[in-house]
Design a protein that fits this description.
This protein is an alpha/beta fold. The chain is built from 11 helices and 13 strands. A hairpin with a 4-residue loop joins strand 1 and strand 2.
Length: 315
């Protein structure tokens, strides 16, 4: 059963004439007759009684008339809603992302999105790597922005940015003395603070940083960068963090100094494999890329390649 068949039946039933109905629908009478006959054949019922002077609904046609009106209205509403999504007038996007991406890329991108497409709603889930990945694969999130240590065949991912590790410490700390990057060995005798085991930052450190920097040496462990910031501000210890993760701390007056040799974190934009992004998601991603480009400095590098994003359906 098609929209064309429903419109044909309703118009003929209201006009009580194939001639007037065909004129109203801008089709030929023969085409209109074919639509009605195919609908009757599909239902296995005669819906209209035809005479040389008029057309009237049968008993079954009268019963179907109310149902057809409701079906047509609901189908047209559904099509209008889909078309509004396609025009980016409506939509819902769920994003799971690291805290630093939320505050310095997603939030400003959302501000622009809200002005350009006020009908698009965005739900942001602040999550570490483990939680973000689970939310994406379970269907709770449309896209994620996070560290990915290993390729996952269930996800399609593209590098979004990379940022260099440095040491975050309280203002005036001796590690801030001097110019240029600081050697990792300078942290050997410092009280180190660590993120939790599900953090992509911590997993990356345990893979790439000097072996003596591993978790067992950490004096305290917290589950979020925000908690880490509070401990650093109190002078309880120092932490090795990527530049973007440390950016809120630097804006809050804490110290940050790049470490050498350079170790980088790569943040990925990922979606589920085989799941095309909606127009609303594509609109948000385009604005997100603009914000990431604005973050670029000597410790943060934008990596997104337009061709790769188009391959993933973000166009």
């Amino acid at each position: 059963m098609t929209l064309r068949q429903l419109r044909a039946f309703l118009t003929v039933a209201r006009e009580r004439s194939f001639t007037r109905a065909a004129a109203q629908l801008h089709v030929t009478q023969s085409a209109l007759t074919v639509s009605i006959k195919s609908l009757e054949a599909e239902l296995g019922l005669k819906l209209l009684d035809r005479s040389t002077r008029s057309v009237t609904p049968t008993l079954h046609g009268e019963r179907f008339l109310t149902l057809a009106e409701r079906m047509l209205e609901e189908m047209e509403q559904a099509l209008d809603d889909l078309q509004a999504h396609a025009r980016r007038e409506r939509g819902l996007v769920v994003v799971a992302a690291t805290a630093s991406l939320v505050s310095h890329a997603l939030a400003p991108a959302l501000g622009v999105l809200n002005r350009r497409h006020p009908g698009i709603l965005v739900r942001i889930l602040e999550a570490n790597t483990g939680e973000a990945t689970r939310r994406l694969l379970s269907g709770e999130a449309d896209i994620i922005l996070t560290t990915l240590l290993e390729p996952d065949p269930a996800m399609d991912a593209v590098p979004l940015l990379r940022d260099r590790f440095g040491v975050a410490c309280a203002p005036g700390h001796k590690l801030l003395a001097g110019a240029g990057p600081l050697d990792w060995s300078a942290l050997r005798d410092q009280p180190l603070l660590s993120l939790g085991s599900e953090s992509g930052i911590r997993a990356l450190l345990e893979r790439q940083a000097p072996s003596w920097l591993a978790h067992p040496r950490a004096r305290h462990e917290v589950s979020s960068v925000g908690g880490l910031r509070s401990l650093i501000r109190q002078g309880i210890g120092v932490a090795a963090l990527p530049a973007l993760a440390a950016l809120p701390m630097r804006e809050d007056g804490l110290g940050f100094r790049p470490l050498a040799p350079a170790v980088y974190r790569t943040v990925y934009l990922a979606r589920r494999q085989g799941r095309s992004p909606t127009p609303a998601t594509s609109a948000l991603v385009a604005l997100l890329l603009d914000q990431v480009a604005l973050l670029a400095d000597e410790t943060i590098e934008a990596l997104a390649v337009p061709e790769e994003l188009r391959r993933m359906g973000f166009g």
